[in-house]
C-alpha cells in the first residue's frame, strides 16, 4: 500500500506495555486518486471532481433544467470532459464515476424514477461505454447517508432523510449502507400516512411524500399566498415575520414528517437522524418543531439534526462509493466533524 501511495508512514508509535517492536504509524493518502461524483435531480445536475478524501478540485452546477433520458448523457459527458482538463497528476488518476439518481436503483440499474424518465434507458451502459472509468449508480438518499457516515459523522448507525420532491431515507447500520434485497429499503416517502389519501406516482394513495415533502410545502404556500413562484427564502421571510398562515403550514409539515421519522426510527433504532432539506436549512427551527412531536417511548431520545454537509452530502456519498470500490473496503471514514 505504501508503494501504491495509498498510505504514508507518519512516524514510529509507542510499543506499549507488551514490549516488542514499536508500531509504524500509517496515514491514508487521500490525494493518491481522483473521484467524479454526480447528483442528478429532475431539474438539476451537480458534479464534483475531487481527490479521494473529498477535497474539491472543481465543481459544476446546472440548474433550472429538465433532466430526461434525451439529455442526461450529454450533460454528464460535457462535465466529465471539463473535469478531465483540470485533472492533477496522481498515482491512480480517476478511479470512478458515481451517479446519484432520485429513484430506486438495483445493482447499477435505474429501476424506478417517478419524477423523471431515467428508468426508460440503460444509463449504466451508456456512461460506461463513453468513459474508461468504473461507473456506479446508487439512490440519492442512500448516497447522502453514506456521505454523512464517511465524511461528517462520528456515529456508526444513522438515518439520513433526503427531502426534495420526494422523501427518501438512507440507512447506515454499523457503517454499512442498507439497501434491501431490491434496492427499495428506506423509501419512507411511500409509507402510507393517510389510507385512501392523495394519489402518488408510485401507485399508492396517501403516501408520506404527498403531504410532507418540500414540493408539497411550496405548492401549498404558493396557493395560500397567491404566488406563482416560491423559494425557501420567501417562506423563511414569512416565517420570521411570524405570518400566521405560514406558521400553521410549517407546523403541519413538521408534524407529518415527525410521523415518518417516528416510523423509521422504530424499524432501525439509529443513533441519529440527519435531515437533508433546503427548507429545513433555511428555517432550522423546523428541526426543533419535529422534535416536539417525537415524544413517544421509542423516539423521544433520538438525536435529530440538520445535515453538516448540507447540499454536498450526496456528492460526498458518491466519492465514498468510488473510494470503497477502489480500496475494496466496505467501510470508509475520512474525518469526524460533528
Ligand atoms: Zn408513493
UniProtKB/TrEMBL annotation:
List, alphabetically, the Pfam families matched: ROK
Listed InterPro entries: ATPase_NBD, ROK, ROK_cs
The record's listing under PROSITE patterns reads: ROK
Q: Which branch of life, at top level?
A: Bacteria
Report the sequence similarity comment from the record. Belongs to the ROK (NagC/XylR) family.
User: Which protein is depicted?
Assistant: ROK family protein
Amino acid at each position: 500500500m505504501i508503494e501504491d501511495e495509498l498510505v504514508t508512514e507518519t512516524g514510529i508509535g509507542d510499543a506499549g506495555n507488551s514490549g516488542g517492536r514499536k508500531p509504524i504509524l500509517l496515514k491514508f493518502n487521500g490525494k493518491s486518486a481522483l473521484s467524479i461524483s454526480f447528483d442528478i435531480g429532475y431539474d438539476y445536475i451537480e458534479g464534483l471532481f475531487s481527490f479521494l478524501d473529498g477535497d474539491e478540485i472543481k465543481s459544476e452546477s446546472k440548474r433550472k433544467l429538465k433532466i430526461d433520458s434525451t439529455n442526461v448523457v450529454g450533460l454528464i459527458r460535457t462535465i466529465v470532459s471539463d473535469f478531465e482538463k483540470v485533472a492533477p497528476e496522481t498515482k491512480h488518476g480517476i478511479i470512478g464515476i458515481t451517479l446519484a439518481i432520485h429513484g430506486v436503483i438495483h445493482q447499477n440499474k435505474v429501476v424506478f424514477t417517478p419524477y423523471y424518465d431515467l428508468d426508460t434507458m440503460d444509463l449504466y451502459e451508456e456512461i460506461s461505454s463513453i468513459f474508461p472509468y468504473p461507473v456506479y449508480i446508487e439512490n440519492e438518499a442512500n448516497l447522502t447517508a453514506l456521505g454523512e457516515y464517511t465524511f461528517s459523522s462520528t456515529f456508526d448507525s444513522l438515518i439520513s432523510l433526503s427531502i426534495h420532491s420526494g422523501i427518501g431515507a438512507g440507512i447506515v447500520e454499523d457503517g454499512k449502507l442498507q439497501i434491501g434485497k431490491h434496492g427499495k429499503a428506506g423509501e419512507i416517502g411511500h409509507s402510507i400516512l393517510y389510507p385512501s389519501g392523495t394519489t402518488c406516482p408510485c401507485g399508492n394513495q396517501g403516501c408520506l411524500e404527498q403531504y410532507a415533502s418540500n414540493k408539497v410545502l411550496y405548492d401549498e404556500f404558493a396557493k395560500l399566498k397567491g404566488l406563482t413562484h416560491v423559494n425557501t427564502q420567501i417562506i423563511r421571510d414569512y416565517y420570521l415575520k411570524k405570518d400566521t398562515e405560514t406558521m400553521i403550514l410549517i407546523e403541519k409539515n413538521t408534524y407529518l414528517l415527525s410521523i415518518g421519522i417516528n416510523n423509521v426510527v422504530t424499524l432501525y433504532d439509529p443513533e441519529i437522524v440527519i435531515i437533508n432539506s433546503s427548507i429545513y436549512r433555511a428555517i432550522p427551527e423546523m428541526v426543533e418543531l419535529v422534535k416536539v412531536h417525537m415524544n413517544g417511548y421509542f423516539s423521544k431520545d433520538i438525536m435529530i439534526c440538520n445535515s453538516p454537509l448540507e447540499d454536498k452530502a450526496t456528492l460526498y456519498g458518491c466519492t465514498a462509493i468510488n473510494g470503497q470500490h477502489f480500496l475494496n473496503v466496505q467501510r470508509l471514514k475520512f474525518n469526524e466533524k460533528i
